[in-house]
Amino acid sequence: MTDPLHTELLEIAQEAARRAGALLRDGRPADLAVAATKSSPIDVVTEMDIAAEKLITGLIAERRPDDGVLGEEGAATEGTSGVRWVIDPLDGTVNYLYGLPTWAVSIAAEQDGETVVGVVTAPMRAETFHAVLGGGAWATGAWDGERRLACRPAPSLDQALVSTGFNYVAEVRAHQAEVARRLIPRLRDIRRGGSAAVDLCDVAAGRLDGYYERGLHPWDLAAGDLIAREAGALTGGRPGERPSGDLAIAGTPGVFEPLQRLLEDFGAWHD
Ligand code: IPD
Ligand code: CA
Ligand code: CA
């Protein structure tokens, strides 16, 4: 039976994601500009990232004022309830800035440090993914209603379609490009979608066999990682570790382990 707290957190996450997604989709100014930069000149923030985070944190504060919050655009409160929200108000900002459709709102809720709820909505795909710990992963689309997600039956690694991402810091990107150069001949192909949250949901939906990236933050990962696991994917970091900023890997069973081994051999982690 589902824990009533988890049901409450899921409903809040779904409402916040729906409202922020609509704001981002319908409120995108035609002349959208970069408002600020962060880790490097190509790591950009727009007024819409900030507006979406404000909407989400405002709704959470109204419904559950004692919860902690960690948001990419600066929200950081401790809370006293044992619940913490981990929010990427706009994952895929560069795609959004250019008018490409692959971007998402990602909202996770942790209870005592463990992710128990994850919601990722991708408005330009008219698709929302969600998972509650132990309750499976689900997608709701405009055309096909709600369906339970199951990751793809494993192909051999040389038949696997694997997505990745590149960090905003030039030296990290150069290292990542070198790892990808060594990996490509061992796979079917590589994709670079531009939203870590969507990549993880695509592993859950069986549209990718695997995904890996170095340099992610908790808000990129939290919701998508739970959704991928609840769809039967394996996730981790370096061998024996949980996914983290050092390295995050997700894959269908059968792809995850050989991919993790190759990434270890190629030194894909943060050093
Ligand atoms: C980025 C996206 C991208 C990934 C970067 C992330 P942002 O998030 O998820 O796919 O490669 O590492 O920082 O900046 O668009 O929220
Ligand atoms: Ca992000
Ligand atoms: Ca973001």
UniProtKB/TrEMBL annotation:
Superkingdom of the organism of origin: Bacteria
InterPro entries membership: IMPase, Inositol_monoP_metal-BS, Inositol_monophosphatase-like, Inositol_monophosphatase_CS
Named cofactor requirement(s): Mg(2+)
Reaction(s) this enzyme catalyzes, per UniProt: a myo-inositol phosphate + H2O = myo-inositol + phosphate
Keyword Ribonucleoprotein: no
Keywords from the UniProt entry: Hydrolase, Magnesium, Metal-binding
Pfam families assigned: Inositol_P
Gene3D superfamilies named among the record's database cross-references: 3.40.190.80, Fructose-1,6-Bisphosphatase, subunit A, domain 1
Listed EC numbers: 3.1.3.25
Family note: Belongs to the inositol monophosphatase superfamily.
UniProt protein name: Inositol-1-monophosphatase
